[in-house]
Amino acid sequence: MQCPRCQHQNPPDHKFCSQCGTALQRASRKVQPTPSYTDLQHSLTEALEQQSAMAEILRIISTSPTNLQPVLDEVVKSAARFCAAPDASIFRLDGENLRAEAHHGAVSQPAGFLIPLVRGTVAGRSVLERQTIAVTDLQVET
C-alpha cells in the first residue's frame, strides 16, 4: 500500500507508513459514485419545493388555526404536485367508510363523498394495508 505523504510502498497489512509514520488509509469497498451536477440540481430543487410547500402550509395554519379545511386543501395540492399526479385526495376514516375531506385535480369529487372501506378500492386498500399506494391509471386499477 502506497503512503499518500512520502509515496513509500508498504506491506498491505500495515496501518502506518514504515518510512514516515503517516496513517495509511484502506480503500473502501463501498465507494459511492459522485453524483452528477444534474442529480445534485434535481435534489436541491426538490428540497426547495418541499420547503416552500411546508412554509405555505404553516402560513395557512397560522392564519386560520381553527379551520382545518384550507390546510387539507394545501396539503392535497402539494401532494399532487410532488407526485406529478393529475389528481389527489385526502380521506378520513368514518366508521366503515372513507369520507373525502380534500381533493385536487380534474376529477370532480364532492366534499363528504363516501367510499366503502374495502380492499376493492384503492383508498380502502391503502388504509387497510396501512401504506401509500401510487396508481398510474385509476381506471385500470378499479
Detailed description of the structure:
With 142 residues, the protein is an alpha+beta fold. The chain has a domain at 86-141. Helices cover 37% and strands 14% of the residues. It is built from 4 helices and 3 strands, in the order ααβββαα. The chain has helices at 37-63, 69-82, 122-129, 138-141, and strands at residues 87-94, 97-105, 114-116. It has a 3-stranded antiparallel β-sheet with strand order 1-2-3. Strand 2 and strand 3 (114-116) form a beta hairpin. Helix 1 packs antiparallel against helix 2. It starts with 36 loop residues before the first helix and ends with a helix. The model has no long low-confidence stretch (mean pLDDT 88).
Would you summarize the structure shown here?
With 142 residues, the chain is of the alpha+beta class. 37% of the residues lie in helices and 14% in strands.
Mind sketching the topology for me?
Layout (H helix, E strand, L loop, with lengths): L36 H27 L5 H14 L4 E8 L2 E9 L8 E3 L5 H8 L8 H4 L1
| Proportion of helical residues | 25-40%
Summing up helix and strand content along with how strands pair, one would put the structural category as alpha+beta
Q: How are the strands of the biggest sheet laid out side by side? A: 1-2-3
The count of strands amounts to 3
Largest sheet: 3 strands, antiparallel
Q: Catalogue the unreliable spans.
A: none
Based on Cα principal axes, name the global outline.
Answer: elongated
Number of helices: 4
Helix and strand element order: HHEEEHH
